[in-house]
Design goal:
This protein has 324 residues and is α+β, with helices and mostly antiparallel strands. It has helices at 7-20, 26-33, 37-49, 79-90, 102-114, 117-129, 135-138, 146-158, 228-237, 253-257, 284-291, 305-322, and strands spanning 54-57, 63-66, 160-167, 173-186, 189-196, 201-206, 210-219, 243-249, 266-271, 274-281, 298-302.
Length: 324
């Protein structure tokens, strides 16, 4: 229900009644809103001045209706629907320090302006109660351009090849053609996975680094049964250039995968009782602490430096255990 205690809200209520009850009369509107007939006529005039095509209807008492084919703005939600949509928009904020993109922020503001006072208070309480991670936990998390994201989504659904200009961390840009297989988001960042014709292999791209996109007439068929999210996560596991890691584990691959998220490492089957972990990292110290959670015997294949890091960690733990 729309709160009709304010004039602006009553005008919205008139719109809702005209949508739901075409031909409603002036006296009926007055009864619903608890106002005079003169006030109803003033509301109708206000709507017409705003460009809303409210037209008189024929009948004994006459009434009002919206012109056939006219669609109201998508704000005619119930209170719970508006609150749910507002919360969904709020949830797109990846960190406490980042602001919503302009388009999302303006949509949220429009919803909040028409919420009744009690729901505004609920919205404020919910907004205050949401916990966001620190930006440091997400790195340089960023929203992609909404229009660019829409272009990519359309190309993925339509199976159209794209031409795009892609920026690199050092500021350089490359132009490439890509068959976009799908889009995914993880840790506040959005990614595009597809076939890169420049590199002639499947690649994952950060969408916030895509500077421009053009859809091409060429069409493609994505691989069957492709798990786009799994491919994106595997790409992230191998994204670091500092250290390449391989470790053999004396445990089935499925058991090891229960401990390691897919974006952390790729787990390959060796046989029924053994598997191999492949990953990249920028910090061997952090990687050693993380991989030490595995409760299975392990053999480091590469790099040799990881053995020294494990020895250092073991010495610290042993010293802690012996301290009294």
């Amino acid at each position: 229900m729309i709160d009709t205690s304010r004039p602006a809200s009553r005008i919205l209520a008139v719109l809702e009644l005209l949508q739901n009850r075409p031909g409603i009369t002036g006296p009926q509107l007055a009864d619903e809103l608890e106002v005079s007939g003169r006030t109803v006529r003033r509301y109708i005039t206000t709507l017409q001045d705003m460009g809303v095509p409210v037209e008189p209807t024929t009948g004994r008492f006459g009434g009002y209706a919206l012109r056939p084919g006219f669609r109201l703005p998508p704000m005619m939600f119930s209170a719970d629907e508006a609150l749910g949509l507002a919360m969904a928009l709020l949830a797109t904020r990846p960190t406490r320090e980042m602001q919503l993109p302009p388009g999302v922020d303006s949509a949220l503001s429009k919803i909040e302006r028409v919420l009744p006072p009690d729901l505004v208070h609920r919205m404020d309480a919910l907004r205050a109660s949401i916990s966001y991670p620190d930006s440091a936990e997400l790195g340089k998390a960023a929203f992609p351009d909404p229009s660019l994201l829409a272009q990519l989504a359309q190309a993925c659904l339509g199976g159209n090849r794209i031409w795009m200009r892609y920026g690199r961390p050092n500021g350089d840009e490359t132009a490439r053609e890509v068959d976009p297989y799908g889009i995914g988001t993880i840790f506040g960042r959005w990614y595009l996975h597809g076939w890169c014709h420049l590199r002639n292999e499947r690649r994952t791209f950060r969408i916030d680094r895509i500077r421009r996109v053009d859809c091409l007439p060429d069409v493609f068929a994505p691989p069957e049964n492709l798990d786009v999210m799994a491919e994106i996560e595997a790409s992230l596991a191998m994204a670091w250039s500092d250290w390449s890691v391989r470790i053999e584990v004396e445990a089935p691959a499925d058991a090891v995968r229960d401990y390691l998220p897919r974006h952390f490492a790729i787990v390959d089957v060796i046989d029924d009782r053994r598997c191999q972990i492949r990953a990249t990292t920028s910090t061997l110290e952090w990687f050693a602490w993380r991989i030490a959670e595995l409760p299975y015997p392990m053999t480091i294949v590469e790099p040799e430096e990881l053995r020294d890091v494990f020895r250092q960690h073991a010495e610290r733990l042993l010293a802690t255990a012996n301290r009294v």
